[in-house]
Write a structure and sequence with these properties.
It contains ten helices and four strands. By secondary structure, the protein is an alpha+beta fold. Strands 1-2-4-3 form a four-stranded antiparallel beta sheet. It starts with a strand and ends in a 19-residue tail after the last helix.
Length: about 210
Amino acid sequence: MDVELLHYTPLTVVAHAIRTCWQSFDKGDRGGPRDRELIDRVGNKYKHSSTLEHLVYTFYIRGISRALLQELARHRIASLSVKSTRYTLKELKKEPPFQDGDLKRAEEFIVLTGDERVDRASVEALERLRQLLVAGISNDFAKYALPECYKSELTWTINGRSLQNFLSLRSSPSALWEMRNLAYAVFDALPEDHKYLFHPYLTPKEEK
């Protein structure tokens, strides 16, 4: 899994939005300590969290399973542009047959769990999918045989308020293991001067 932050809103924008309410622009310090404290106080402590919707983050997420993608889509206040299986399954068609021991090669296309039985079944499913493509089945039909472990990638845009909710839910020990890994990776990719707004919503890793 790889998470890259492509773009984000500077803290000065959300500070400006908050100061618009009280017309207190003269008290701002261009994203400095006073603005940072104001954002935390209003957005988090006073629960006027709609102001955090002015913060927007765009990530490029690669190497996640379609099982994880399905859960990610449940976070509705976010935008997803996902790699199309309709147009990209040809990447698998060129591969030689996959055998039971081909875990390393198969990992280019599927997410492995570490459970031998599950991973072997995943490789078998990958090989059956490859055979369909080689037999000339169109991507539109072959994709119905995609295993949930098949890797995908997406560009994901989310606002600060929704990101807090995502991190709170998805760093929980009860979250899907792969989703929990994504939550930590997303947090790690945030700008350092933004992390203080999200750290309280992140369940520490040691609580797994």
